[in-house]
Write a structure and sequence with these properties.
The chain is an all-alpha fold. It has one domain. The protein has 22 helices and no strands. The longest helix is centred in the middle third of the chain and has 34 residues. The relative contact order is 0.16.
Length: 428
C-alpha cells in the first residue's frame, strides 16, 4: 500500500473522531489526498461524485422514502396499528407486540429505518405511556423495531448495496423477507418475556372477529403494496426505480381517492421531509465515491483480502470475522457509508471462499442495520428517545435485550443461508 493513502485516511479519522458529519469527513479526506499527494488532478473529485450520484438504481431511494411518508400522512399507519391492536391487545404486553407488528408491516412501505422508528414511536408512545409502560422501554422497542425498515423490502440500504456491488435489487428484496420476519418474531418473544417478568398490562376488551375483519379490511390496502413491489421487480414488470415511482403513485391514490385524508399541504411537507432524508443519503453516496476510488487505487482492498485469506479460507471463520468487523464499524458509522466503503472490499473476499453473493449481501445489510441501535452512535436510539420523552442513556440500557435478540438472528442467518436464499431461488 502506498504511503500516499495515509493522506486520505488520517484526515478522515481525525474529523470523524471530533464529530464532523460522515459525508464531510469522507470529502475532506479525498480533498487532502488530491492536494497533498499531487498524483491526480482535483477534477477527479467532482467526476467521481457525479458518476456515483447519477446511478439510475439509486433514484429508487427518494421514491420509496416519499411513498412511506405519504402512507404515514394518509393515516394508513394508524389503520395498521388499529388492526394490530385488535389482534394482539388481549396478550400481556399487547401494545409492545402491536408496535413490533405495526413496524414490520410499515417497513414494507417505507424503506427507511429512521422514518420507521419515528412513525411507530410517535403513534404508539402516548398509548404505551398511558398504559404504564416505561419511557425507556417504549423508546428502546421503537428503535429496535425501526431496524426492520432497513431489512424488510423496500430497503434503501439494499438499493445502495446493489448499486455498489452489482447485486440484483429484486433478489436482495426477496432475500430480506426471511431475516426481517425472523427479527420481528424474536422481538415479539423478547417483549413477551419482559412483559411477563415486569407485569406489563393486557387489555380487558374481549376479542371480536367482526372487529378483526373490519380492521383487516382497513389495513389490507397497505399490505398489498410490499407484495406489489416485490412481485413487480422480481417478475421483470418494472425496475426498482420504476417500482419506487409505482409505490408513490399507489400511496397518492390511497390517500387522495380512497381515504381522502391527504391535503396538498401534507403532500408538500412530506415531499420536503423525504427530500431531506434522500439528500442526506445521496450526499454520503457522492462523498464516498472519490474516497473509495482512492482506496482502490491504493490497493487497500487487495491487501485486506490477502491478509484475511492468509489467516483462513474457511467460509464460516471468514464470515465470523467479517461480522465482527461490521459490528464494530457499525457502532460508529452510518449504514450507507459502511456499505460504500467496505462492501467492495469484503464482498470479493466472501465470494473467494465460496459464500453465496446474495447470502453475504443480505447478511451485511442486516449486520449494518443492527448498528442503528448499537451505542454509542445508534441513530435510531437518538430518534426514539426524545419522541418517548426518555433519556438517551436509559434507552441504551433498555435496548440491550432487543439488541441481543437481533444478534441471535444475525448468527442464525449467517450460518443457515436458506433463510435468505430460499425465496429468491424459488421465484427466480
Amino acid at each position: 500500500m502506498s504511503f500516499d493513502v495515509y493522506y486520505l485516511l488520517i484526515p478522515f479519522c481525525i474529523t470523524l473522531v471530533i464529530g464532523v458529519p460522515i459525508a464531510m469527513s469522507l470529502g475532506l479526506g479525498a480533498i487532502c489526498y488530491l492536494l497533498l499527494a499531487g498524483t491526480l488532478p482535483a477534477s477527479v473529485m467532482t467526476q467521481q461524485m457525479y458518476n456515483s450520484a447519477a446511478s439510475f438504481p439509486l433514484m429508487a431511494i427518494p421514491f420509496f422514502i416519499l411513498a412511506g411518508g405519504i402512507m404515514n400522512e394518509s393515516g394508513i399507519t394508524q389503520r395498521l396499528l388499529d388492526f394490530c391492536k385488535i389482534l394482539l391487545q388481549r396478550y400481556r404486553g399487547g401494545l409492545g407486540h402491536s408496535m413490533v407488528l405495526t413496524g414490520t408491516v410499515f417497513s414494507g412501505l417505507c424503506g427507511s429505518a429512521t422514518a420507521d422508528t419515528a412513525a411507530t414511536t410517535r403513534i404508539l408512545a402516548p398509548s404505551m405511556l398511558k398504559e404504564g409502560y416505561p419511557r425507556e422501554f417504549t423508546a428502546g422497542l421503537g428503535a429496535a423495531t425501526g431496524v426492520l425498515g432497513a431489512v424488510i423490502p423496500p430497503s434503501a440500504l439494499m438499493i445502495v448495496y446493489a448499486a455498489t456491488v452489482g447485486t440484483s435489487v429484486g433478489a436482495m428484496f426477496m432475500g430480506g423477507v426471511g431475516p426481517g420476519l425472523l427479527i420481528s418474531a424474536f422481538l415479539m418473544i423478547t417483549v413477551a418475556i419482559i412483559a411477563r417478568k415486569r407485569g406489563y398490562p393486557k387489555s380487558d376488551i374481549p376479542f371480536s372477529w367482526i372487529k378483526l375483519l373490519f380492521g383487516l379490511k382497513d389495513a389490507s390496502l397497505a399490505l398489498v403494496m410490499p407484495v406489489l413491489i416485490i412481485v413487480g421487480i422480481r417478475g421483470g414488470i418494472f425496475t426498482p426505480t420504476e417500482g419506487g415511482a409505482v409505490a408513490v403513485a399507489y400511496s397518492l391514490f390511497i390517500g387522495l381517492c380512497v381515504f381522502r385524508t391527504l391535503t396538498w399541504k401534507r403532500i408538500f411537507d412530506t415531499a420536503v421531509t423525504s427530500g431531506i432524508m434522500a439528500a442526506t443519503i445521496m450526499l454520503i453516496v457522492s462523498a464516498s465515491a472519490p474516497f473509495g476510488w482512492i482506496i482502490t487505487i491504493g490497493r487497500l482492498p487487495a491487501i485486506v483480502a490477502e491478509q484475511m485469506l492468509a489467516l483462513t479460507t474457511n467460509p464460516i471463520l471468514v464470515l465470523l470475522m467479517i461480522n465482527l468487523i461490521l459490528l464494530v464499524v457499525g457502532m460508529f458509522l452510518e449504514g450507507a457509508a459502511v456499505i460504500l466503503l467496505l462492501a467492495p472490499i469484503l464482498a470479493p473476499i466472501a465470494v473467494a471462499v465460496g459464500i453465496d453473493p446474495l447470502h453475504f449481501a443480505v447478511v451485511m445489510v442486516v449486520n449494518i442495520s443492527i448498528g442503528l441501535i448499537t451505542p454509542p452512535a445508534g441513530i435510531n436510539l437518538f430518534v426514539a428517545a426524545p419522541i418517548a420523552g426518555a433519556e438517551v442513556g436509559s434507552v441504551f440500557r433498555s435496548v440491550m435485550p432487543f439488541l441481543a435478540a437481533q444478534l441471535l438472528v444475525l448468527a442464525i442467518i449467517s450460518f443457515y443461508p436458506p433463510i435468505i436464499t430460499w425465496l429468491p431461488n424459488t421465484f427466480r
